[in-house]
Write a structure and sequence with these properties.
Strand content: under 5%
Radius of gyration: 47 Å
Number of helices: 5
Largest sheet: none
Order of helices and strands: HHHHH
Number of strands: 0
């Protein structure tokens, strides 16, 4: 029975089932299209499928998942099933077997490896040289101070520009008034005296 559960046999069985289904489909297509080989192909395909169904009926059902290793007592209909991650229970139906203990130890080993990586990261952080950081922070502070000064002088310049713009507008109005007065004076001199 170990040959039936081997990986090679499972692959071969899936391959034969796939090829058999393909032969049936090709035969059905040929029959629908009234191809001269349609009768032969559909017959070959159906015989192949009949053989495969017999083969699958003879082979025992395959057990792919072993949930009872994670949930001890799953085989027993009346068992109070708890996962291994929940920890041992009082009055469990059966003691942990070697596979369950091995699974727990594997989990603990993974946790220890993760902790080791974390400690390695902390050690690397400890070895970092922060001596130049103070100087860099001071230069950043100076930069921000200068930037703030520049922004405040820019703000003052904007206010000065607004005042200048208002003064230019006022000057423009005054010049327009002066031009009209000058135009009136010139017009008065150009009129003939009666």
């Amino acid at each position: 029975m170990s040959f039936i559960k081997s990986k090679g046999f499972k692959y071969f069985k899936n391959f034969v089932i796939g090829v058999g289904a393909a032969v049936v489909m090709i035969g059905a297509l040929a029959k629908i299209l009234s191809h001269p080989l349609g009768n032969i192909l559909i017959t070959a395909g159906l015989l192949t499928e009949a053989f495969l169904f017999c083969l699958l009926g003879i082979l025992p059902p395959e057990k792919d998942y072993y949930w009872e290793k994670l949930y001890p007592g799953l085989d027993d209909y009346n068992a109070n099933v708890q996962p291994l991650t929940a920890g041992p229970q009082a009055g469990s139906l059966r003691p942990l077997d070697a596979d369950a203990v091995e699974g727990r130890l594997g989990g603990m080993l993974n946790e220890l490896q993760d902790m080791s990586k974390s400690l390695g990261s902390l050690k690397a952080l400890q070895e970092v040289d922060f001596s130049e950081t103070k100087g860099q922070m001071e230069s950043m502070s100076n930069f921000y101070t200068r930037m703030n000064d520049a922004m405040s002088s820019l703000s003052e310049t904007v206010e000065d520009t607004k005042i200048y713009k208002e003064q230019i507008a006022s000057l423009n109005k005054n010049l327009t008034s002066l031009n009209s007065v000058y135009g009136n004076v010139l017009g008065a001199f150009k009129k003939p005296i009666d």
